[in-house]
Amino acid sequence: MQSDTALIRLTDCPYSGNIRLTSPLLTEDTHACPRGSADSSSVSRRRLRVCHECDLLLALPPLKTGEKADCPRCNHTLVRRQANAAERSLALAIATLIMLGLSLSFPFLGFSLQGFGNGIELSETVSSLLSFNQSLVALIILLTVLILPLLYLTALSWLCVGIIRGQPLPKSPLLARMLNYVTPWMMADVFVIGTLVSMIKIVGMAEVELGLSFWTVCGYALLLLFTSQSVDRDWLWQALDSTPMAPTGGLLGQAAAPQGLTGCNTCGLVNPITAGGRCERCDEPLHPYQGVNTQTTLALLGAAIVMFIPANVYPIMISTSLGSTEPSTILAGVLLFFQSGDWPIALVILIASIVVPVGKMLSLLWLCFVVQRQQQPMSRLTRNRLYRITEFIGRWSMVDVFVVAILVALIYSGDLISIAPGPAALAFTSVVILTMLAAMMFDPRSIWQPNPNTTDSSTAPSIQRPHSSAKEHL
Q1: Residue 9: how many CB atoms within 10 A of its CB?
Q2: Taking a C-beta distance cutoff of 8 angstroms, is the pair 94, 88 a contact?
Q3: In this predicted structure, what is the pLDDT of residue 415?
Q4: Dist. CA 419–CA 412, nearest whole Å
Q5: The whole model's pTM is what?
Q6: For residue 427, what are the contacts with CB-CB under 8 A and spacing of at least 6?
Q7: Could you report the per-residue pLDDT of 376-394, keeping only the tens digit for each?
Q8: What whole-number distance in Å separates Cα of residue 399 and Cα of residue 199?
Q9: For residue 48, which of 249, 292, 339, 241 has the smallest C-alpha distance?
Q10: No. of helices (H) and no. of strands (E), the chain
Q11: Which tens digits make up the pLDDT trace of 191-220?
């Protein structure tokens, strides 16, 4: 039977729901899930996983290169297989490190105005803030743009070299654990957007000069994004240590916590729940679902709301032109762009600096409220999608912080023209960090808690197949 898209109902499969396969020809992988069994005894214990977003115990089907498997209930991507994963990630990591080295070696940006001008290197976007006693903001920029990506790329290269050799190098498990913590805080791509916004601000008053480092920074950010997306943590941990297996006796298609099981958030191994338990493979603390607990998220949101007030009341930067000083708040900067006709940039700053933080705080507050009250104003799947969007967009609010750092370093010609950071810079940076932490502390598994009054239908997992490569992976 040939079909571009096939929809098959596997009622006895651990993936209880519809499985959509996209392939020119259906193969035996259609029947990857054993029929006539609802427990895990008939599948390899190495294939068992617990969805991190809805706590469903599942068995992975055999996957080929380029395929992915999604949770049938919440559509969370469980695994995504890559061709030549170790070689691919190593090549990307090395290329990104080269771009980072070039970015630090050449001029970044420059400007000239009536015979005066200035040029900066990438590192000066951090050092200039130190001269204005903005050490915390400088440290955050240094970490998110340079230090954490450098650690990530170095650790990933170390891991890939060991896997290619067939013998993991020393400290590989520790470095693999570190990748999980570093990834959300790498913001080179956001820094590039901040650079573009800064350039448009400068163009209105001076001539902008692009250094070689500007182009390499763009390449560095793009390659870093590709590198992080090339890593399949599930495959990575299987390559490092495939010995540990899930316990026996679990019921597939059921919540893991009531069965005394939980999935490791770092390596994905299914572990039994024990007091103060740690993962048998990576030694990370386990976080089994223990009911709705939103206190940490609400506390962080409360702190973010408090800091959001000075972040918008006080000036985020102070401009000096011909001896005249003019403070500028975030909203004032947006209005200035609208008045000058640069409405696309005004919209970018408005969305990143006001709409996103406010929307994120309101979304998290609403999610905390509905899970506490066990109300169902919309389907669980819709609420889960709202949480994913909220978690994803938070980092983009750092655009305004990066704009301030670049302008402070670049626009400095004494009393003729200069820009200094305002007191709101630290407050707004705190809002971004606090809202990101609040989203991380929110447990999306609470969205899927049982409610006897309503039911939500399961949603199909999507396994997308390319037309090439028939190599099968675990």
Answers
A1: 9
A2: no
A3: 58
A4: 6
A5: 0.83
A6: 307, 308, 310, 311, 314
A7: 777 888 888 999 999 888 8
A8: 13
A9: 249
A10: 15, 17
A11: 999 999 888 878 767 788 899 999 999 999
